[in-house]
């Protein structure tokens, strides 16, 4: 009788789930940035990839990103239930059965890698698999709950897409694709720490050792400023290497200085006021920063070409 009741309860929970709930499991907002940077990698890579195959490659990146996000939500559903920002997600809210979410994530992971291998090449498929595995096992399972450096190391997972897109066209890596990896890698800590500053009570309540919780607001703001200063010259590398022209270089310099300016404003704000404006504005600007840089890359390359 108990097994029957559990089965009926699981069926009832599954029936309450909408298509939107399953889409939300894929973290569509995160996916959009991942897909865009991967698309740019495809567009600026030397060589030619049939438009249909290029579309499949970008789709594979999107599905791989969604799969990793889905497994992340499955694993972190206990933490999500404790944080106001995430409590209404499909799993903690009880609209999706955990086993369904895990199955969806695993199936999409396998399908996305196979799709990449069939539509492009083994190198791109291997990079996509590495990105998924890194995000799930290194960031989500190993780092997230153990160290305030979770975002620093784990952020590498989100830096893979331009390399994957590049490899989809060329079958290998290059200094330029690695430079784009480095750009996103260095962008990730100040981006997420800005969010963590104004959401630090959420992370404290959930017991997640984000830097503002473990080291305090002052140290977090110092490290955010350091990362933006290092990012400033790194973002100029594509121009300095001759991959694109000075249009991109000018945009990167302008946006980089603005990013540093936001970090300085956050640094100068009183710790108890950081979450009431400066950190939130820096977080929002960081999204504009990365999107604008990657949008400028193919535009500049087209003008130079």
Task: Explain this structure.
The chain has 305 residues and is mainly alpha-helical. The chain folds into two domains: 1-173, Tetracycline Repressor, domain 2 (Orthogonal Bundle), CATH 1.10.357.140; 174-305, Four Helix Bundle (Hemerythrin (Met), subunit A) (Up-down Bundle), CATH 1.20.120. 78% of the residues lie in helices and 0% in strands. It has helices at 2-16, 19-25, 28-44, 51-75, 77-80, 98-119, 122-143, 150-154, 156-159, 161-170, 175-198, 200-206, 211-214, 217-234, 237-240, 246-268, 278-304. The longest helix has 27 residues, at 278-304. Residues 1-8 have low confidence and may be disordered.
CATH superfamily of the largest domain: UbiA prenyltransferase
> What oligomeric state is this?
single chain
**How does the helix and strand content classify structurally?**
mainly alpha
Helix proportion range: over 70%
CATH domain topology of the largest domain: Tetracycline Repressor, domain 2
CATH class of the largest domain: Mainly Alpha
Order of helices and strands: HHHHHHHHHHHHHHHHH
Number of domains: 2
Report the end-to-end length measured between terminal Cα atoms. Answer: 71 Å
Radius of gyration: 20 Å
Backbone shape: flat
Topology:
Elements lengths: L1 H15 L2 H7 L2 H17 L6 H25 L1 H4 L17 H22 L2 H22 L6 H5 L1 H4 L1 H10 L4 H24 L1 H7 L4 H4 L2 H18 L2 H4 L5 H23 L9 H27 L1
Helix pairs in contact: 3-4, 3-10, 3-17, 4-6, 4-7, 4-10, 6-7, 7-10, 10-11, 11-14, 11-17, 14-16, 16-17
């Amino acid at each position: 009788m108990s097994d029957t009741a559990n089965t009926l309860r699981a069926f009832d929970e599954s029936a309450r789930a909408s298509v939107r709930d399953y889409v939300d499991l894929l973290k569509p907002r995160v996916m959009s940035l991942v897909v865009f940077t991967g698309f740019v990698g495809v567009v600026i890579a030397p060589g030619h990839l049939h438009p249909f195959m290029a579309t499949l490659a970008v789709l594979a990146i999107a599905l791989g990103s969604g799969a990793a996000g889905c497994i992340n939500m499955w694993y972190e559903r206990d933490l999500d239930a404790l944080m106001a920002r995430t409590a209404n997600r499909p799993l903690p809210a009880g609209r999706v059965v955990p086993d369904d979410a895990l199955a969806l994530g695993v199936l999409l992971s396998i399908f996305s890698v196979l799709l990449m291998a069939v539509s492009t090449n083994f190198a791109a498929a291997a990079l996509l698999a590495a990105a998924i595995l890194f995000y799930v096992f290194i960031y989500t399972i190993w780092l997230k709950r153990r160290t305030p450096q979770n975002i620093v190391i784990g952020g590498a997972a989100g830096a893979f897409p331009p390399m994957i897109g590049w490899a989809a066209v060329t079958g290998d890596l290059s200094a330029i694709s690695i430079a784009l990896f480095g750009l996103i890698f260095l962008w990730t800590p100040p981006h997420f720490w800005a969010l963590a500053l104004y959401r630090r009570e959420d992370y404290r309540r959930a017991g997640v050792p984000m830097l503002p919780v473990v080291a305090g607001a002052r140290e977090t703001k110092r490290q955010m400023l350091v990362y933006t200063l290092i990012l400033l010259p790194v973002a100029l590398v594509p121009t300095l290497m001759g991959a694109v022209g000075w249009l991109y270089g000018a945009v990167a310099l302008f946006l980089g200085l603005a990013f540093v300016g936001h970090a300085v404003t956050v640094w100068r704000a009183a710790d108890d006021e950081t979450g009431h404006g400066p950190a939130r504005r820096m977080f929002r600007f960081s999204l504009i920063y990365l999107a604008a840089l990657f949008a400028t890359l193919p535009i500049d390359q087209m003008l130079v070409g």
